[in-house]
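[step 3/7] fold_predict: job queued, chain A
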Amino acid sequence: MAAIAVMTALTGCGGGDSVDAAGERTTARAAEKAAKDELTVDAVRGDVRSAAKAAGIGRLSLPDMSKAGSPCRVLGVLRTEDAPKREVVDSVSVVLKARGWGRMERMSAEDGGQAWHLEKNGWDMFLGAGKFPEGAGIVFDASGKACGVPMPSRPAASETAPPERPVLP
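[step 4/7] structure written:
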């Protein structure tokens, strides 16, 4: 009888609850991980603030892009008197890397400027530094698909599709 109890405990037979509980725990962990990995606008704004602080120059402007109809976009402009030096831009990129922004790809930039493309948890960021028509500085332009805010819903198909042809009897 003891052998049957041990075999039942080892195989999980006779107590289906343990399998369901493990499955629920796995699902709960996956949902928790997904929520933890989802990047919010506030988190991206925090990354931009930290990177701008590391630059040690200029004044950061972070307008609220949700008012412009872009709830999953962060635009930051660090204005400077002159084009930022390479050391300043390097300090910005070190902070962004430390905060999880990876896959940093250098992009071609006009007028001797510097530009990179970065990624983090479904977000893309363009980081540009140099002289722009609006002045000199560093631009952070990030956008994501999931950002912790409800996205506008699509209209129902009945609202966008042409009416069906009538069917003759």
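[step 5/7] annotate
The two ends are 73 Å apart (CA to CA).
Residues 51 and 93 are 7 Å apart (CA to CA).
exit 0
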